[in-house]
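PROTEIN–LIGAND DATA SHEET

This sheet pairs a single protein chain with one bound small molecule, pyridoxal-5'-phosphate, given as SMILES. Inputs appear in the order they were entered. The predicted three-dimensional arrangement of chain and ligand is reported afterwards as a C-alpha cell string under its own label.
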Amino acid sequence: MTIPFLDLGAAYRELKTEIDAAIHRVLDSGWYILGPEVEAFEAEWAAYCEADHAVGVANGLDALILALRSLDVGPGDEVIVPSNTYIATWLAVTAVGARPIPVEPDPATHNIDPTGIAEMITPSTKVILPVHLYGQPTDLDPILALARSRGIAVVEDAAQAHGACYKGRRIGAHGDVVCWSFYPGKNLGALGDGGAVTTNRADLSDRIRVLRNYGSRVKYVNEVQGENSRLDPIQAAVLRAKLPHLDAWTERRLAIAEAYADGLAGLGLILPNVPNWADPAWHLYVVRTKNRAALQKRLAAVGVGTLIHYPIPPHMQAAYADLGLAPEALPIARDLAEEVLSLPIGPQLDLPAAQKVIAGLVDAL
Ligand SMILES: *Cc1c(COP(=O)(O)O)cnc(C)c1O
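PREDICTION REPORTED AS:
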C-alpha cells in the first residue's frame, strides 16, 4: 500500500525523542503501578476535557464497564445504546448483566437519533449511552434533557472523540460519566491498551477510582468487589508526551476532511454531514456508497487502503444471537454496515496523499 489506511508507527516517529524520554523516566523511577505519572496524566486529561475529574483505567471497554458499575447498573436494568456502534458499547452493558436496548441512528449523522429514545424508555431504564461515532459529537442536549426529566443517567462513549466539541465545549463532562479509550489507533493513542473516565461528579469519580483498584482505597482494605483495571504508568507517560500535540493533530485531520469534502463533492458519495454545533475529532472519515466493494477494490489497486467501520452491527453478531434480534429489526444499522467505507485520515497523512485518495475515487466513479 502506498497510502496505508493507518500507519501507527508514524506518530511514534514524529515524537520519538519525547516518547523515549517519557518511557525511560518511568523505567528509572522504579514506580510501575499507578503513582505520580498516572496522577499527572489524570490531571492533564481532566483539564483538557474541561472536566473536574479523570480516572485512568486499563482500556476503553473497562472505562464503560466501570462507569456503569459506578451507577449501580446490573441485572434487571436496561441501557439505551445505539444500534450503530462498535460492539464494545454493547459488551459493557451485558458485562454488568444489564440489557442493551438499541435505538437506530439518524442516517444523516450515523449517531443515535435522539427522537427515537423516549419511546424505548421503561421503568427499568437506568442509563442512556450515546456514542460519538467516528469522532462526530452526538446531539447531547435533547438526550440530557430527556434523561434529567426521567431521572436517568447519561454515560458517553467517547472512545473516538478526543478533542471533539459539542456547542463549543469539549466532550468530557456533558453527561454523568464520559468514557475514553487510548487504544493505539485512537486520536490520542497509547503504545498498548489504556483508557479513562472523565466526569464532573466527585461521587462517581471516587467510586470508579476504588473499583479500578480491587475495591480498595487503603492497601489490603477492600470496601467493594472491585477489579484490576489500572492505567499503566508507562502508557500514562506516553500519553502525556502526546497530549500537547493533540490539538495540532486534530487540525491536520480537519484539513484532510476539508480536502475530502471539496474533492469528493458531486461524485454520488454520501459524505459526512457536520451540524453547525459540532467540532468533530475526525477519528474516521466515512463515506456511504452502494458500490462499496467495487470502490474498495479500485482504491486498493492504486495503493489506497480503506477499512469498514463496522461490517457487522452488534445485533447481527453471533455474540448477541441470544437477544433474538433479526437483521431487519434494526434496518438502518444493517444498511449502514453494507454501505460505509472509511478513507485514510490521520495526523501523519499529508495533503498530497489525501489528493491521491481523491484522484483514485474520481477515477473509479
Ligand atoms: C475503541 C472503542 C471502544 C473500546 O476501547 P478499547 O480500549 O479497545 O477497549 C469502545 N467504544 C468505541 C466506540 C470504540 O471505538
